[in-house]
Fe2OG dioxygenase domain-containing protein
Amino acid sequence: MSINWAFHHFSQHGRKKTNLDLVESRKTLKAKKKERMGADTPQLPVIYLSDQTLKPGSEKWAEVRSGVRKALEEYGAFEVSYDRVTEELKKSVLDAMIELFELPVEAKQRNVSPKPYMGYSTHNGLSESLGIQDPNVLEKVNEFTQLLRPDCEGNKSMSETIQKFSEKLVELDVTVKRMVIQSFGIENYFDEHLKSLKNYRMRLMKYVAPPDVDAKDADDGANTNLNANADADAGAGDIANGIANVHIDEDVNAKGDVGTGGGDANHNGDDANTGDSASVKSNVDVGTDVNVKASVGADVNVGTIADANANIGTLSSANVGVGDSVKANGGADDEEKKLGLPSHTDKNLLTVLYQYEIDGLEVLTKDEKWIRLKPAHNSFVVIAGDSLYALMNGRLSRPFHRVRVTERKKTRYSIALFSAPDGDYIIEPPKELVDEKHPRLFKPFTYADLMSFYHTEAGRRSRSTLDAYSAVSGA
């Protein structure tokens, strides 16, 4: 036995170190390492929009506007401190969500829509989501609550709560859009086109951690292979609990293509537009252990085209467990199965997301580091989508993001608002944003056409639906 070995193996008092001592020592080293890494961990910028003096044309407005543009140029996303939504209203919305998700499955399955990705959806028994079109319109929210809870006395109050919350998020969405467009000196464009850029949908999401999640999953922050990423339209976000509301034809067979596209699903990324012609006709829950040779169109290209075992039931609104807008060409690997929502970009303009208490949303930086966003007081997350990226001629970023739920025995709730152009609105940058230094990156397209391409074989296989569909050759 060497002297050095003996010195390190015994304590100062001559006691031999036990396994417990070694474990505690490793824990201490791990904590110190984590502390050192924390100092270098990237964070999204925080924008303060709570100032009551923040008015268009003011010096403060110009200052904040500059911060918004810089954040979207560098990250494509930012956290926003926004106190216009009261704690009481946020709590009331959470109570409403809990009440809605506790309804019998057959009641939630009545949340269907002729538009894709707007109905009730589930994913591997880990998450579920509900969708509302035009959530800022009380009549539309009333239709939603009445459908799920016919003649319930509490419907009026619940509808008003959701609508008021949506109104506040719409105000935030419009403020950010105005700041972005003003920052490029094209405010007239904003005023002329605002109405066509305000197509809203909301996704209510609930999910839990996979049963095998462990401490390593919670701490590693590992980067998933970007080739397994995709352009899901989570819008959500969250955006998105890894759920997909996908259109599936009733006669789908073992070798058929299961088309999914856009949505911040649970995948919240709700990115199917009103102009999209697909209609939801059957309620289908597709698990990750799929065993049919089908391409599950969601926007996450996850490896081989795959076996996807589609559990096609006799239900009535399409549920595909992949992630609302997540394009998965096949079965997910072990890492992907642990994600509430695989890595993707949104197809819409902007997504505004709120996480209740439990974190899960992660945003990828340009140097491929994941930023995990912790819920904070008055903190919302704003994420730019492909449509805004194209509209601004690539002058902003549109980040890949995902959802990883790592807290055991806790239920995560989140809510996301997605804004998209009207289906027939032609998306092309204003002439002021195209010059010799900034050549046109994308051919003009409509949101409906982009989403239609999203459903094709080529669209499903593309890492970026937008680039594959509309990129200018050589740009």
In short: The first strand starts at residue 46 and ends at 48.
